[in-house]
Specification:
single chain, mainly alpha, Helix Hairpins, 3 helices
Length: 102
């Protein structure tokens, strides 16, 4: 059981690291930034589920479902804003988004 826990934690750490590297290295493309945030949220959800199974408690799995629903709403709203911004401005470059101040 411990070996499986360590393997899952290694995969979660790898996913989290890829997400953070995507956020840090790529500041130009907003779509990759959104995908990196989703990778981070999914690795955190996997941690909740793995530890929930390891300690035999359902609260981690319920919290993971809650975080998943929030992440899905965040993605849908973020992509809707991105599409509408692209239609108005013609670009989704992060440098140009500073002009959205109202």
């Amino acid at each position: 059981m411990i070996i499986n826990l360590i393997n899952y934690l290694a995969v979660n750490t790898l996913l989290f690291t890829i997400g953070v590297i995507g956020l840090v290295l790529n500041r130009k493309n907003i779509l990759i930034v959104l995908m990196s945030i989703e990778l981070i949220l999914l690795s955190i959800n996997m941690n909740f589920i793995v530890f929930s199974i390891f300690i035999d408690d359902l609260f981690g799995q319920m919290f993971a479902l809650f975080v998943l629903s929030i992440a899905a709403a965040e993605s849908a709203i973020g992509l809707a804003i991105l599409v509408s911004y692209y239609r108005v401005r013609g670009t989704v470059a992060v440098e140009k988004i500073q002009t959205m101040r109202g």
